[in-house]
Specification:
It contains 10 helices and 8 strands. The protein has helices at about 5-15, 35-40, 60-70, 90-105, 130-140, 185-195, 205-220, 225-230, 240-255, 265-280; strands spanning about 20-25, 45-50, 80, 115-120, 160-165, 170-175, 255-260, 260-265. It has a 6-stranded mixed β-sheet with strand order 3-2-1-4-6-5, with helices on both faces. A two-stranded antiparallel sheet has the order 7-8.
Amino acid sequence: MHMSVQLKKMEAKLRSVDLVIEVHDARIPVTGRNEQFFRHLYAIRPHILVLNKCDLIDMKRYKKRIEDYYYDRGVQKVLFTDCKKRLPRALNDVKTSMLYALENTPRFNRTVKTEYQAMVVGIPNVGKSSLINAMRTHTLGIKRKAVEAGARPGVTVRVQNRVRIMDKPPIYIIDTPGVLSPDHRNIEDAMKLALCDLVLESHVNLYYLADYLLFWLNQSNDFSYLKLLGIQEQQKEPSDDIQEILAKTCAANDFRIQRSMGERWDFDRGAKHFIQLYRNSKFEDSNLDHHLF
């Protein structure tokens, strides 16, 4: 569904919403955030920024730098979570921050004083539904999923009915579909989103995505890919030639494809293998935005 349609649906819910929780991917803490959300949602309601998948970055190295970056830009609260592992301390931080924001902010047009309502927003596949399920389990002890969550973008396709996540005080959360910003149309932003699996893989050329990953690793002076791809014997020095790297990766891992004219190297499989190493946080650094703050 078109972004403007989804935003209008979210705005229609704002009259009954006390807090907006934005979930984003900690591997790209700056890139890809939807500025339309700020103009339409955050400027109207209190806002908490939750950076999920923090287990995939070096928190000792980046936590304070990311916090300082956002506090300098007016974001009042930045939290880090890993909703897959459901770490109690991180979920307690979310709970405490929610309660503080809800209990210390005017209720605007709300007439019902006995319950609170929050809305979770963000781009696709950053963990919005996972956060709701994790909070519900953490605070209410209910393990059954309240909203569907998946490892692919676009699982949530419409603004959902509210889900109760807390009893004292009663707090409900509305799940929303992931909405990509039209403002981020440059190639590098698109490649970062794709590397983090935040857009459908069918929309991405794997060869070019692997090429960007190679470029980024070399720029970051991270040459561990030679060993991780198993090509350190054939490739003694770093290279910016993705075709050479993929050919040697296919040879080292026996990635072949059968054709009527004979065998050839399966470059798509080699590229997927390379990209998956990044998604599994196998390289020295996974923060694609480290140069932005």
